[in-house]
Amino acid sequence: MHRFANPGRFQRLATRVLPWLKGLTALSFLAGLYLALLASPPDYQQGETVRIMYVHVPAAWMALFAYLLLGLASASSLIWRHPLADIAAQALSPIGAAFTLVALATGSLWGKPMWGTYWVWDARLTSFLLLFFLYLGHMALLDAFDDRNRGRRSAAVLALVGLVNLPIIKFSVDWWNTLHQPASITRMDGPSIDPSMLWPLLTMAVAFHLFLLTALLERMRTLLMEARLRAQRQARFEAMQAEQG
Amino acid sequence: MMEETAFGAFLAMGGYAEFVWPAYGVTGLVLLAIWLDGYRRRRAVERALQRLARDGSGQDAQGRDTGRNDA
Amino acid sequence: MKRKTLRLYLLVISLALLGTATGLVLSAINSDLISYFVSPTQVTKEPVEPGRTVRLGGLVEVDSVGKLDDGATHRFRVTDLSNSVEVLYRGVLPDLFREGQGVVVEGSFNDNGRFVAAEVLAKHDENYLPAEVVKALKESGRWQEGAAATAINGSEGVDP
């Protein structure tokens, strides 16, 4: 594992893998869209609106998964001060915020026809909105200090504190009365989704995972190059000063 | 009526078109935006690195940092 | 001890403390504060004074949906299978409003002990099935009503 944690090696690996990942992501989105929009039946209660599930649920999963990764990256940044962990954390929060936004917006568009409202302040929806603000807060803190390292450390602490929100989101539908329904997939007695609707959902979930991975690697590679650019400019600036002095 | 053709029925989404299509639209737009943002930043920093290697400035004529926002 | 190990322990301990503290706070505050609605049994045991706004959640009782003589006010009963409350509502019902389905009504009790709703929200369950499958199950007589009860009772559901 430590071999890939070397920034230079990571850079070469990402450059080689990314074109393949992009192709795979596009293909799985095509397959997912075909299954979700064309090759799956309407639901017995919800009719065609069930198709919103195929984007809403994977987006919500990715929003939570990205936050878990953000927590892990922040922990290893604080403990081992590893540069790649910092870069991963910095790359993750905009991606996670995007997925959270998608989950909130599609959930709202699903709630209006089925529940009769775009939004309610129940425990699930409220804790998910908090997740969005945690991502925004992480992005803001990274830029809030002139000293980059102070920004990174405070952002990492915020990300770790925000980890307590993950179990709250997950179990809110079991612990409290909510308008949002309980989980359909991760149930003790197996998923309560018919296979004809489970397959489109899982295919979309694969596509969303691949998108997360692709976007993450692309952003990490860019951030590494930006760090190199800063270092080169600094070196050149110092060389110029030495010439003049 | 639109619904008389198979394609019309597909577009109508059983009367829920105004919710299903915006849901897919907003998903596509947000994912596209996050991808485009990452792509533009990578192109910008690649160009700045090349410029730095060529003439040693890495900045544009106004002396701005081209590492980030150069589209 | 190496500084890295120290930082690791420190982080694990503070996260564990934070988690425990959050857990204690969440279990200590009245869960009714966080819960989005109360059940018919709760309002039967501890009646809510007339005029106070509450949200009531349960299933729409089968064969209870009708209209008042004015032709505009919906009348139905909300049940949690132990107790039920009569609800009056003037307005448009959501598409998912059906007998046997979950519902959350917001409003208050009037002086006659009937619940006057200002808003009716449908609650859907976590079961997803193609319409054709349900039709086939119903035709063969193997369809069981009441699966929606799990949506209301959550983890303590009565799902078979």
TrEMBL record, chain A:
It is a multi-pass membrane protein. It holds the Pfam family Cytochrom_C_asm. The keyword Signal does not apply. GO terms for cellular component: plasma membrane. It is found in: Cell inner membrane; Membrane. Keywords: Cell inner membrane, Cell membrane, Cytochrome c-type biogenesis, Membrane, Transmembrane, Transmembrane helix, Transport. Coiled coil: none annotated. Residues 25-180 form the Cytochrome c assembly protein domain. One of its GO terms (biological process) is cytochrome complex assembly. The chain crosses the membrane at residues 20-39, 59-80, 92-111, 123-142, 154-173, 197-217. InterPro entries: Cyt_c_assembly, Cyt_c_biogenesis_CcmC, Cyt_c_biogenesis_CcsA/CcmC. One of its GO terms (molecular function) is heme binding. Belongs to the CcmC/CycZ/HelC family. Required for the export of heme to the periplasm for the biogenesis of c-type cytochromes. This is Heme exporter protein C. It comes from Dongia mobilis. The lineage of its organism: Bacteria, Pseudomonadati, Pseudomonadota, Alphaproteobacteria, Rhodospirillales. The gene is ccmC.
Automatic annotation (TrEMBL), chain B:
Required for the export of heme to the periplasm for the biogenesis of c-type cytochromes. Belongs to the CcmD/CycX/HelD family. It comes from Dongia mobilis. The chain crosses the membrane at residues 20-39. It is found in: Cell inner membrane. It comes from the Bacteria. This is Heme exporter protein D. Keywords: Cell inner membrane, Cell membrane, Cytochrome c-type biogenesis, Membrane, Transmembrane, Transmembrane helix, Transport. The keyword Cell membrane applies. Residues 62-71 have a biased composition (Basic and acidic residues). GO terms for biological process: cytochrome c biosynthetic process; cytochrome complex assembly; heme transport. One of its GO terms (cellular component) is plasma membrane. Pfam families: CcmD. Residues 52-71 are annotated as: Disordered. It is a single-pass membrane protein. Its main location: membrane. InterPro entries: Haem_export_protD_CcmD, Heme_exporter_D. The lineage of its organism: Bacteria, Pseudomonadati, Pseudomonadota, Alphaproteobacteria, Rhodospirillales.
From TrEMBL, chain C:
One of its GO terms (biological process) is protein-heme linkage. It comes from the Bacteria. InterPro entries: CcmE (IPR004329), CcmE-like_sf (IPR036127), NA-bd_OB-fold (IPR012340). GO terms for molecular function: heme binding; metal ion binding. GO terms for cellular component: plasma membrane. It is found in: Cell membrane; Membrane. Heme binds at H124, Y128. Residues 29-160 are extracellular. Transmembrane segments: none annotated. It is a single-pass type II membrane protein. Residues 1-7 are cytoplasmic. Keywords: Cell membrane, Cytochrome c-type biogenesis, Heme, Iron, Membrane, Metal-binding, Signal-anchor, Transmembrane, Transmembrane helix. Belongs to the CcmE/CycJ family. Heme chaperone required for the biogenesis of c-type cytochromes. Transiently binds heme delivered by CcmC and transfers the heme to apo-cytochromes in a process facilitated by CcmF and CcmH. This is Cytochrome c-type biogenesis protein CcmE.
